[in-house]
Amino acid sequence: MPSVIGERARQIARYLRRAAARIEDQPHPDRLGVTRQPGQYGAGTAAGAPGKVIIVLGYCEFQADGAHGISAICRAGVRRAEALANDAKPSAVIFTGWSSTGGPTEADLMAEAWNGRRDVPLIRETLATNTAENAVRSLAVLHALDAASDVIVVCSVRHFPRVRFLFNRLYREHGYTVSYRYVASPLPSPALVMAELASITRMVRDRRRARRLLHHDPVREHGILQVDTGSTGD
Question: Is the peptide bond before 186 cis (omega within 30 degrees of 0)?
Answer without folding.
Answer: yes
